[in-house]
Write a structure and sequence with these properties.
12 strands, Beta-Lactamase, binds flavin mononucleotide
Length: 370
Amino acid sequence: MQGDHKHIRNFDEFVKGKDEQLQLLFRAVECARNGIVITDPSRTDNPIIYSNPAFSALTGYAPEQIIGRNCRFLQRDDREQAAVREIKEAVLKEIPITTVLRNYKRNGTLFWNELTISPVKNDSGQIVNFIGIQNDITSRIDSERRVQEFYSVISHELRTPLSSIHGALTAIEECSAGRINSQVMRLVRIGVDNSTRLMRLINDILDWKKLEAGKFKLNLREFDPADPVESVINELRIAAESKQVTLTSEIMPHHNVVADQDRIIQVLNNLAANAIKFSAPGSLVKIRVEAPSSDTIRFAVIDSGPGIASDQMEKLFVRFQQLDSSDTRKKGGSGLGLAISKAIVELHGGNIGVTSTLGDGSKFWFEIFS
Ligand SMILES: Cc1cc2nc3c(=O)[nH]c(=O)nc-3n(C[C@H](O)[C@H](O)[C@H](O)COP(=O)(O)O)c2cc1C
């Protein structure tokens, strides 16, 4: 790249002589907000031969304190880092690297250094220098850590006690601790319903976090796709009955599928629970399974609820987007269910979608290929 400025538009016009060119580059490097150092690998221990003002501002070292030294002084005693080994290897192999490592300012303060090192070649392609660009990402790392702590609090301090509250209330509801009068039962049911909602919300948040971090693992095995339909119908029977909605299945000719059954149940449960939530008393919600081709299984949840306007449909699978109606908000939900469903289906390599007509119900479907 060096000696070849053809890619820079109007460069020749802009920079007329060598001196001006040097001045331009010098000013640009001096004014950059990132720390920049240049080292000389032809000298013992690859010392710094140039550092810009931003490097001094970042580290607290004046140029005269660092010129002639190897950059490792920023690590102090903290050298047991994979990044240091990676850098050593990249410099030896003379290849570029971007990595993050712990460094220390002159006053001892730790900072997270997002460091990019590139070899600099001369006109004949020989590596004559290295350029290192330092970016202080301490505040980003700190906020990522705070987010991490927040999820850990949700998982341990919130989910664990909530699940024992839920367990205790469910046991009372099932009269495991003896019969209770109808007035107490009414209160217990309120507790069970609300703790279930809260558990679902917490699980959705934690699932979403895992999906975003790419840590959501599928447990693939072969099963009959009618099985998850049946278990969702059992799980949602009480919810459907209490809304006087009939929940049925329609099992068309099909074949086995290889997928994560629990996750397929999660998606179907989410779609069917939504359908029940938006259905009027006396109406029907149907879960259908079919095989449109020898390698495709298609699940569909069909309702005769209010339907979805076409301009609202693209919002549906986006996280924290509930459709824009006070009626929708009243129905509750984390706003994550459909986004999680989409992510799970896509993790299987499948597709998810919806067809709907306002006033004439909706059909949410997804397909898994094997
Ligand atoms: C151009 C350049 C810039 C570097 N900048 C830094 C830096 O900002 N912080 C740091 O800890 N190491 C930096 N290093 C890495 C160290 O100089 C050294 O290569 C690393 O510690 C691995 O080698 P060692 O195990 O011999 O110390 C830089 C290296 C080069 C070539």
